[in-house]
Design a protein that fits this description.
CATH architecture: Roll
CATH class: Mainly Beta
Strand content: 35-45%
Helix content: 10-25%
Number of strands: 13
Distance between the termini: 17 Å
Number of helices: 2
Radius of gyration: 21 Å
Shape: extended
Length: 178
């Protein structure tokens, strides 16, 4: 840390440590969607968050708190809109709900799929892999149309999932980043 030294750390900038940047990531798999050219239109991704719900037991003079279960929050993906995008998202949506059958039951080959993303370093090497299990689209926002705006149109997709596995990748020995 610049400006102070604690236990032989600090005092100068540590230029050998690379911090991660939010613009370095890629989609590997998005449920049943396989159109890689469409996946390149991804604009933003929120990473998984989990919270531990608590069980409180009243003792004689204290409240004792215990971990009860884990709740994973939905993630959201924002894409620049294309015709291909709408088609691919609608295919996945139709596994969850159709106009003639309503909400479909999840079963073998059903709507719950895996999603996978990588966070990357400055050289494009994966430093963290994120997998979502039992994922499905729970909300689709196709944006709005306006004659007062010439920005690129975007689509927001919320993905609900059962749980995530976040796996850090170990850097090769001697590799410190740049």
């Amino acid at each position: 840390m610049p400006g102070f030294k604690i236990a032989n750390y600090g005092g100068e900038a540590l230029s050998t440590i690379e911090t991660l940047r939010p613009h370095r990531w890629r989609i590997i798999q998005l449920g049943p969607i396989t159109a890689q050219d469409f996946l390149l239109t991804a604009k933003e991704l929120t990473l998984p968050q989990w919270k531990v719900e608590q069980l409180t037991v009243l003792g004689a003079v204290l409240n004792y708190k215990y971990a009860k279960n884990i709740k994973w929050d939905d993630i959201s993906l924002t894409f620049y809109d294309t015709q291909k995008l709408a088609s691919e998202i609608e295919k996945w949506k139709s596994l969850v709900n159709t106009d003639d059958k309503g909400i479909l039951v999840h079963g073998s080959g059903g709507y719950k799929k895996e999603c996978e993303f990588d966070e990357l370093d400055g050289q494009g090497t994966s430093v963290r892999n994120i997998k979502l299990f039992g994922a499905w689209p729970s909300s689709i926002n196709y944006g709005k149309l306006s004659y007062q705006n010439s920005e690129l149109k975007s689509v927001e997709l919320s993905i609900t999932y059962d749980y995530a596995r976040i796996t850090p990748k170990e850097p090769p020995r001697g590799h410190h980043g740049v």
